[in-house]
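Below is how a single chain appears once it has passed through the pipeline. First comes the sequence as given, then the structure the pipeline wrote out for it. We keep one example in the README because the format questions we get most often are answered faster by looking than by reading.
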Amino acid sequence: MVKRQANVERVMVAAEETIVSAIRPRARARARAVYRAAVEATFELIQQRGQLAHLTSYTFFTVLDVLPVPTKLGTATCERAVDDLRSCGLISTRRVYQPAEFLDKTTGEVVTRSTCIGVWLTVLLKAVAPGLRARVMQEELPLEAPRDLAADRRRGRTGYALKVQHQEEQALKAQEASLSEVRESVSPQGGNFRGNPLLQWSLPRNSSESLATSDSLTSATEPAEVVWALGAILSEHPQRRRDLIEQAGQRLALLFRDRHSARAYYRLLWCAVEAEFRGIPAFFGLQNAMQRVLVAMREVPVRSPGALLLHELGDQGCGWLAASGWHDRRRYLA
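Resulting structure:
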């Protein structure tokens, strides 16, 4: 916790020059508040995933509608601060859209509209070169965002609901503080606000529990689930990490219907995990490539999914793949 806070303060000090030079004086306080909230969420996510904190920038999926909760600012104020931070290059965003059903207010009919469900947010953590700006790398993003808007709306898991819940909890705390007598507190309905609201859609709902279990690996049906398990493996003990990565390789071989190449998939996943330990993003590109292979397998016959996976990774220009020497090992994936 102390180390994470030290990293946050280090980033804030480094960003102060940019904030002062690029943002007008009256808008600097709100920009600092929003940027600090984004940086704190970034380092908390890095810690939760067991990754290295020595990164130039970091990208994760979030819903910016919840910014008023950690910043205690208004919605419009947060939006203006996001615009200022984006213009000076401290953050970058890319919206994600998904079709959703709504009731037409006039006719009462169900209509389908393309709706923004959140953004991929890149936060600049270290300006290693003059003029460096945060940039969302489209080629490193998975094909699907980690959110199901329809399911979230059915459960009431929306940005607006989080804001209302937080306001109720703050009002309850203020009421209890004003009472002279100590009474048993009664939580408001749905009073289970926990954790950083910006990470509600970046971490699994049971993020306090490790995903690196045999059940989570053997039941994985999508590349995203394999990647989530790999992210949890990063924080496992080294003696257990090897067995879990091997299980992930076997599961990937089952997904690709390519059991005889399980050992090669295991080595590939191990290289991706080692790259993440060195601070080189590998999981997003790996998930994107695996998803493309599955799509290709549904459309045309694929004799060697492993070779196609390496080809997709090579087309993405993955530096971690070239550093591992896998461009010379395609013959092992026959």
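The chain is about 50% helix and 10% strand.

See the next section for the split statistics.
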